[in-house]
Amino acid sequence: MDGEWYLLYVSSGHEEQARRNLEQRIKYMDVGDKIFDVVIPTAKEIEIKAGKRRTITKKAFPGYIMVNMQLDEHSWDIVRNTPGVAGFVSAGVKPVPLPQEEANAILRRMDEAPTEVKTTFKEGDSIRVTSGPFLDFIGKVEQVNLNKGKVIVMLSLFGRETPVELDLLGVEKL
Predict the structure, then answer these.
(1) Inter-residue contact 4 to 71 (CB < 8 Å)
(2) R_g (Cα) of the chain, nearest Å
(3) Domain shared by 76 and 93, yes or no
(4) Three-state DSSP class for 19?
(5) What residues are paired with 145 via a beta bridge?
(6) Residue 129 in contact with residue 139, Cβ under 8 Å?
(7) CATH number, residue 166
(8) Closest Cα to residue 141, out of 155, 158, 153?
(9) Is 83 helix (H, G, I), strand (E, B) or coil?
(10) How many CB atoms lie under 10 A from the CB of residue 44?
(11) Strand order in the sheet with 64-69
(12) How many domains does the chain have?
C-alpha cells in the first residue's frame, strides 16, 4: 500500500455503517487498487462495572473514519459520494492527507493494550461492598486510586466512620 491516510466526516454514531457502505462501493466499483483500507479509529479501555473488570473498545474520534487511498478524481468521487460520508476533513477544496506519523500514532494506539481504567463511581458516591470481610456493608467513596485498582471507602464500624481500602472489583455503586 503506497496510499495516504485521509480523515472523513461521517454522522456520529453511524461510523460502522459509513465504513460498510464505503467498503461495498470499493468492492462493486473495483477500485481496490486505489482505495486500500477503511478504519474506524478506536481505543481500548478497562471498565469496572458491577464489580466486574472488562475491556471495552470505544471510538477515539466519534464522527470520523480514516481511509487509506491514492487520491485522484475517480477515487475522490467514489469516497465523497458514499452514503454516510459527509466529506473529507481539509482546509481547502482538495483533501489534505494526515501526516504519516499522526496516522501511524492513531493506528498504533488501536493495537495497544488498555491502560486507562474507567469506573462507574467517583468520590462521594454511595457504594456497597460485594466481597471480602465487609460484604454487604454500605459506605461512601473517599478516594479512588485507579493505578492501584483500589478505593478508600468510609464504612461505619463499631459506630464510627472508618476508612477502609478495598479492591475496585469488590464494590458496586448503589
Answers:
(1) yes
(2) 23
(3) yes
(4) helix
(5) 150
(6) yes
(7) 2.30.30.30
(8) 153
(9) coil
(10) 17
(11) 35-39, 64-69, 4-10, 85-88
(12) 2
The three three-digit cell numbers of residue 151, written as one number:
478505593
The pLDDT assigned to 98 comes to 94
Range 95-104 average pLDDT: 93
With a cut of 70, say whether residue 113 has pLDDT above it.
yes
Domain span holding position 152:
121-173
CA atoms within 13 A on the CB side of 1: 12
- Statement to judge: residues 66 and 27 lie in one domain: yes
Grid cell at residue 107: 493506528
Among 56, 67, 75, residue whose Cα is nearest residue 106: 67
Element of type H or E holding 135? none
Cβ–Cβ under 8 Å, residues 31 and 78: yes
Amino acid (one-letter) located at 71? L
Same domain assignment for residues 113 and 50:
yes
Burial class of residue 146, CB neighbours in 10 A (0-12, 13-18, 19+) = middle
C-alpha cell at 13: 454514531
> What pTM did the predictor assign?
0.71
Q: What is the CATH number of the domain that holds 86?
A: 3.30.70.940
Question: Quick one: 133 and 100 in the same domain?
Answer: no
